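Researcher: I'd like a candidate sequence for this fold, 154 residues long. If you have to choose between options at a position, lean toward the conservative one.
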């Protein structure tokens, strides 16, 4: 907050539910942040205004739709913010290979690509038949359990 000159405020992405890799919204609310937008299935955009003028930020239309272009099987869209993401995407994609389930993997190459995702979480999105499932980087066991649950529901 020391370098707030010429800044309108602070914006954070959090969640209506406690989720991995997202700070609990209660922490921000306690410090004066207000929710100004939401996106499915659980994302919240919270802001702390330093100046009253100006419009509140909002999630883009893609993030509010919670979907991706591929409507068949699984889609993994990721960036290398975390050094383990690429390795784990390979491991969980191997589970789909073993089950002969179609999937696509897309590595983000720019900030602009991340801003157009079907999720406000710009570094990892796991989708099934085009719909956002989670932003969570899972162990193989947890992902296999998710796949089995989806297959039994199909």
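Model: Candidate sequence:
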């Amino acid at each position: 907050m020391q370098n707030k000159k010429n800044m309108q405020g602070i914006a954070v992405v959090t969640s209506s539910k406690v989720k991995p890799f997202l700070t609990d919204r209660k922490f921000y609310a306690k410090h004066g942040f207000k929710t100004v937008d939401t996106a499915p299935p659980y994302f919240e955009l919270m802001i702390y205004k330093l100046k009253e003028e100006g419009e509140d930020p909002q999630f883009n239309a893609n993030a509010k739709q919670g979907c991706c272009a591929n409507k068949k099987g699984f889609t993994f869209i990721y960036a290398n913010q975390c050094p383990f993401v690429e390795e784990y995407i390979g491991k969980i994609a191997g589970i789909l290979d073993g089950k002969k389930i179609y999937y696509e993997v897309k590595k983000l190459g720019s900030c602009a690509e991340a801003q157009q995702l079907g999720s406000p979480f710009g570094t990892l999105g796991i989708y099934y038949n085009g719909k956002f499932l989670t932003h969570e980087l899972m162990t193989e066991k947890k992902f296999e359990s998710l796949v089995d649950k989806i297959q039994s529901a199909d």
